[in-house]
Write a structure and sequence with these properties.
- 2 copies of one chain form a homodimer.
- Chain A is of the alpha/beta class.
- Chain A has 13 helices and 11 strands.
- Chain A has 2 domains: 167 residues, NAD(P)-binding Rossmann-like Domain (Rossmann fold, 3-Layer(aba) Sandwich), CATH 3.40.50.720; 148 residues, Dihydrodipicolinate Reductase, domain 2 (2-Layer Sandwich), CATH 3.30.360.
- In chain A, a hairpin with a 4-residue loop joins strand 10 and strand 11.
- In chain A, helix 1 packs across helix 13 and helix 5 runs parallel beside helix 6.
- The radius of gyration of chain A is 20 Å and the shape is globular.
Chain lengths: 333, 333
């Protein structure tokens, strides 16, 4: 569901890595249906991925894959297709969670595993979606929702076995970090925002980033997945960066600090707000980078830094989920 | 084998985490023998860990655990004890690799898994030790050798599934990084070294750090484990930091850079040497921190930062290995 930049990147990865995927992981994925806002391509024995990409590039929608254009109801397609997995890539709507939530629920109810990079459904109803997945005996994975290609969730979950993460803090939104970095160089908030829009980092309506919704959604996902909390976006204390003044940024700079939009989970309190951070703190990265520091019981604290976005990077996160789901199914059998 | 700071930290962790280890991972470890340079404590049904720690603290050696002090040959104990695993914690000797290498070989030949934080054996003979482990059907793990408690090896191996690491670079030695950081503040090499000795960061004979042997040993481990190369410390081009002048450091600083002792694996070339790095590069950390940046095919590049040493931190890395070995054995069955 959804065939934008991330979906197309994933399709390209499935092509370019197909030999490796089979030889290293025993996977030979087929795409049996692909839907975008313009239409739908269906082939129970597997779509020709090369042609799918070409049709999308030339005609703007996968609906043109077949000569006879087909009407379709997305939920009907999800439910009825003989597929093992739904890859849900529709855009994030932080208010309704749709169409992602309905897509995910349909897939799980019809026994399909789900990989999503859509933060809306998870931000609004992470605990109930996980329950539904368990109830239906399917897996729900979402590596690409936090950190793009940077495996922040995997790091926390897999790399610190035997230890216990006590708290964490991080820069989870590249757009606001870019704006704050530019303000350090002297730009006003508005011109930094315009600059971010021109470079393609910010949306036309950038409130998702600016108001901290995006960072809050990611914090919800981390709090549930890493800390075992059962929270939604309503449980986050959220302040955006609109009220940050150039003078604030510069005063911080004089003290060897920077103002960063931090997402914090500490003693089960969940916060997203602009905070003054020492430039010597490894979490204090510039530009569109993301960074998270985990504090654990015995192994000290670790920071992981990487780009938080990008089609190919996020595509590679989906591929990781795909491999992990395959491995998990295999273990169960 | 070996009951210094790391060994004692591990023992403390086994005590303090015992409930968790059993409930979360199904592990109830017993220490059936413990050797240090002063003697040996043996109890086939499990030593009293609390008392073991106390004897060590009060009398300086675990040899005093029993009233009748026992003579012992370490290799004989390793071979004959009915144990599933050897935890090898003797000090690193980068020239001979002993006594670690003999200990590890004895354990593997008698069918015991091995966890080590001793870099000597791995730096000198990683490929053959791995072969010997495979041949004997046992596992050899060494998380604590790189990054202390920071899970650098696990990150590379587990978090980027489906992708391929092309190259990496990193600050792998905290002592030299501390000295270089102090030189930035204006200290000479010698006074920075003395400062490091006073703080306990540098050994009395610090050539292992200063000449780059320690970083080179870690690079060998990473090249073998992460990149699948078959190399030993002879294959590393190594330059230490003794020739770095305060004037070099300060000129770099004027350009917004810093001189760092980097370990680099790029196009299968393996280097350890002082290099000028931009202060904006996430890998450019100060003090005793370690940092590694991995460059991969599709998911971009990620940096992981943490303290590279510490008894409790390294103890927690051993615990991770213990859990992983248990999980792997369990899967095999």
């Amino acid at each position: 569901m959804g065939f934008g930049i991330v979906g197309q990147s994933l399709a390209k990865l499935l092509l370019s890595r197909s030999v490796d995927l089979f030889s290293l992981y025993g996977i030979k994925p087929r795409i049996v249906a692909c839907l975008d806002t313009g239409g739908c391509a269906i082939a129970p024995r597997g779509l020709d991925i090369q042609r799918l990409l070409e049709v999308k590039r030339l005609k703007g929608s996968v609906g043109e894959y077949e000569k006879t254009s087909s009407r379709f109801d997305p939920l009907y397609v999800i439910e009825k297709m003989d597929a093992e997995m739904l890859v849900e890539l529709t855009p994030t709507d932080i208010e309704s969670g749709e169409p992602g939530t309905s897509n995910i629920i349909s897939a799980m109810r019809s026994g399909k595993h789900v990989i999503t990079v859509n933060k809306g459904p998870l931000a609004l109803s992470f605990p109930s979606l996980m329950e539904l997945a368990n109830y239906n005996g399917v897996l729900l994975r979402f590596s690409g929702t936090v950190g793009g290609g940077t495996p922040i969730l995997e790091f926390a979950k897999r790399c610190l076995k035997g230890d216990r993460i006590i708290s964490f803090k991080g820069i989870l939104n590249g757009t606001t970090n870019y704006i704050l970095s530019k303000m350090e160089e002297g730009m006003t908030f508005d011109s930094a925002l315009n600059d971010a829009k021109q470079k393609g980092y910010a949306e036309a309506v950038p409130s998702l980033d600016i108001e901290g919704f995006d960072a809050a959604a990611k914090l919800v996902i981390m709090a549930n997945f890493i800390m075992g909390m059962k929270v939604t976006i309503k449980d986050i204390h959220r302040t955006g960066i609109r009220s940050v003044q150039v003078s604030d940024v510069q005063r911080a700079q004089e003290r060897g600090n920077a103002i960063k939009l931090l997402a914090i989970c500490d003693k089960k309190k969940l916060d997203v707000r602009p905070i003054e951070v020492s430039k010597k703190d490894p979490v204090c990265v510039d530009g569109t980078l993301n960074a998270v520091t985990f504090f654990s019981d015995h192994s000290g604290h670790q920071t992981i830094i990487g780009r938080g976005a990008g089609g190919m990077e996020t595509g590679s996160a989906i591929l990781r989920d795909l491999i992990e789901i395959k491995d998990t199914i295999f273990e169960r059998r």
